[in-house]
Design a protein that fits this description.
Helices cover about 35% and strands about 15% of the residues. By secondary structure, it is α/β, with parallel strands linked by helices. It has one domain (about 5-410): Glycosidases (TIM Barrel), CATH 3.20.20. Strands 4-5-6-7-8-9-10-11 form an eight-stranded parallel barrel, surrounded by five helices. The protein has a three-stranded antiparallel beta sheet with strand order 1-2-3, with no helix packed on it. Strands 12-13 form a two-stranded antiparallel sheet. A hairpin with a 2-residue loop joins β12 and β13. α3 crosses α7 (about 185-200), α4 (about 105-115) crosses α5 (about 115-130) and α7 (about 185-200) runs parallel beside α8 (about 225-245). Bound molecules: 2-acetamido-2-deoxy-beta-D-glucopyranose (NAG) (7 copies). One 2-acetamido-2-deoxy-beta-D-glucopyranose binds near residues 273, 274, 276, 278 and 279. One 2-acetamido-2-deoxy-beta-D-glucopyranose (NAG) binds next to β13.
Length: about 400
Amino acid sequence: MHIPLSLLPILGSLAQASPILPRASSWPNAPFTASGRDIKNSLNETVVYAGVNWPGAADVMIPEGLQYQSVSSIMSKIKDLGMNVIRLTYAIELVDDIYSGVDSSLKAAFIQALGETNGTKVLNQVLSSNPSFTENTTRLEVFDAIAAEADTQLIYVHLDNHVSKGEWCCGHDDGNAWFGDTYFNVANWKRGLAYMSSHAKSWPAFTSMSLRNELRTTSNGTGDNWVSWYENMVPAADGINAANPAPLIFFSGLNYDTQLATIVNGKDIGNGTTFSLDNYSYKDKIVWELHNYANSATNCNDIKGSLRNQGYNAMEGSASAVNKAPVVLTEFGFDQNTGSSSVYAQCIKEYLTTLPGGPGGWMQWVISGSYYIREGAQDKDETWGLLNHDWSDWRNQTASDYTKSFVEKTLV
Ligand SMILES: *[C@@H]1O[C@H](CO)[C@@H](O)[C@H](O)[C@H]1NC(C)=O
Ligand SMILES: *[C@@H]1O[C@H](CO)[C@@H](O)[C@H](O)[C@H]1NC(C)=O
Ligand SMILES: *[C@@H]1O[C@H](CO)[C@@H](O)[C@H](O)[C@H]1NC(C)=O
Ligand SMILES: *[C@@H]1O[C@H](CO)[C@@H](O)[C@H](O)[C@H]1NC(C)=O
Ligand SMILES: *[C@@H]1O[C@H](CO)[C@@H](O)[C@H](O)[C@H]1NC(C)=O
Ligand SMILES: *[C@@H]1O[C@H](CO)[C@@H](O)[C@H](O)[C@H]1NC(C)=O
Ligand SMILES: *[C@@H]1O[C@H](CO)[C@@H](O)[C@H](O)[C@H]1NC(C)=O
């Protein structure tokens, strides 16, 4: 929504009298489509994502932070940065439990993951911070509540399948690494994607979803090849699109989602087949996603070169990419107390905001100041979290200023 500058003071005083401005009823102008390197809304306006990851895929399988703050106050913090999207992560196990009739209430989920004593304590904190929930609210209803609040605050929801078994991600030996890995049952994964795609039809703010976060080799070194990628990702995308034709579908690459060149450039996947957008009836729904954590890089040109080589050439005006689609950097991030002035952080910002043809979209890792449980440690602090431990304020003003200015330069 473009507000003429001359109206801003009036809106400002209105906002003081009544904090809830009338919403633009047509927002979010979905469904979105992919048109060349750009995401377009239904008005054919270019939409660029600038947002943050809100994790909900670990052991409890409930979006983090709700023992400390309400859904609306967390969303307001995200809004304060000027962001327009959240990457909301979930585990396939959440859907498996629904199919198998496991009690998915908040009470059961917290006690299961944190034990009787701590689970009960944290549950009570969640209910006290979020009085609209009860112990019988289901995990999926918490996702619904977040999606509803996102709609209220005009923030798009990008759903991300982060893992199969709910746990901290990602390692080669965590069982969630590659199709067929210990916990990565392919049939359940496809069922889970289709389920969430269909379920999210009731969320007005829902605009896109991913196939899978950070594919990688398993502990025995298998996986991470394009033929197997192709044979799994394409039918899974077909399933999402059949269940709900509206969302954009994000295709991630190999090696922790750092490599997409083979697909973007339409090269032989290893058996004589090449990926071509033209083969898909929903080609205008396909978006590429990449991650970058080259945090220790000392030369910005190295970071730029590797991003470009791994798929960002699809974002260039008249470039070499055969399969030209939008590329979104769905993860990058840094320690909030040391990282915002690094070559890495400054370079990512510069690169994405100066791409030929306009800024590219991104979602920073991560909003969470702490986790219910991470790798066995309860109430685990997250030094990469934009928010502090109890999610009440920014962890580091310099770092949140970096993010705020990145948003401003992206949503020009
Ligand atoms: C959408 O906008 C682009 C320019 O950004 C224009 O080339 C195209 O024709 C428009 N498409 C429609 C359907 O209006
Ligand atoms: C329960 O919570 C307390 C305080 O947060 C923590 O010290 C303790 O380790 C937790 N118990 C378990 C089993 O993790
Ligand atoms: C939750 O469900 C149980 C079992 O149906 C019921 O006994 C209990 O009163 C419910 N709690 C709330 C807060 O509704
Ligand atoms: C390697 O791991 C995968 C996934 O866990 C498994 O399917 C495969 O059988 C294993 N291969 C070998 C040679 O152990
Ligand atoms: C290559 O592998 C994919 C995935 O299994 C398959 O769909 C395709 O037909 C194969 N291409 C050739 C030429 O065998
Ligand atoms: C996709 O399209 C390309 C070019 O149009 C073609 O060469 C390729 O074989 C197709 N692949 C499949 C799996 O249909
Ligand atoms: C906040 O981040 C900046 C930039 O990395 C750093 O210089 C500063 O020491 C950090 N502040 C605190 C309190 O850690």
